[in-house]
Amino acid sequence: MKYVIILIALFALNTTVNAQTKTKHPVKHHMNSSSKDCVMMKDGNMMMMKNGKMMEMDNDVTMKNGTVCMKDGTCKMKNGKTMMMKDGDKCYMDGRMGKMGKMKM
User: Fold this and answer.
1) Mapping DSSP to helix (H, G, I), strand (E, B) and coil, where does residue 79 land?
2) Which residues fall within 8 angstroms of residue 61, CB to CB, at 6 or more apart?
3) Is 46 helix (H, G, I), strand (E, B) or coil?
4) % of the chain residues with pLDDT over 70
5) Taking a C-beta distance cutoff of 8 angstroms, is the pair 18, 10 a contact?
6) Helix, strand or coil for residue 43?
7) Where are the domains of the chain?
């Protein structure tokens, strides 16, 4: 009977130790829609993509890094540099700039 109790205790201890070990493969997180939020120049108009919905920009937008994108397509970086967005340019909410790929509107 003593051996049965010890075996049960060892089994329970082994199970909890295995449950706390890290996996060899990292867990992949799905990108949420907010990671795709951005402002973009499309057909000469500044548009905003928010939660997967496209809408015309009605106010200037300040990005996380301090960049300000204005309704006329002017983007002023925190360091003072100013640029005019061209058709197909976009600025993510973290301040990264990029080009639009093939997007269905």
Assistant:
1) coil
2) 39, 48, 68, 69
3) strand
4) 71
5) no
6) coil
7) 33-94
